[in-house]
Amino acid sequence: MQKRYYLDTCIWIDYFENRKDRFRPLGEWALRAINEIIAEEGIILISSLNHKELKKFYTEVQIKNLVSHIPAILLKMVFYSESQKKEAILTAKMLGIPVSDALHAIIARDNSAVLITRDKHFFLIRGIDIKLPEELF
Prior knowledge:
Helices cover 47% and strands 14% of the residues. It has 137 residues and is an alpha/beta fold. It has one domain: Rossmann fold (3-Layer(aba) Sandwich), CATH 3.40.50.1010.
């Protein structure tokens, strides 16, 4: 069975903008992680929540370009349910984290995907396989 990966929106933005912080090439590492997933023929999930968050910064054309180098067979759009959203609200309140972070984690969990992120909020949530992009290469 193909391994599944869910990229947090910040990883997509790191890749798209080739971001760097003071010490690390975040965009380069995001691209390398994506390329590693492609090389192993893993499935990259992009959610309706990712899309909604990306639309705050980019046009539809830019978003399509963002994922254009990923073979269509390895890219899968997933949608969240109302029950997942309700669970995310409860999880967020319980852990003191943003609802969107809780929802990303729940989407990854329910799609049996490794969550790729740098956001420390996610590490508070149990039962989810979480990795930094650079842990993939």
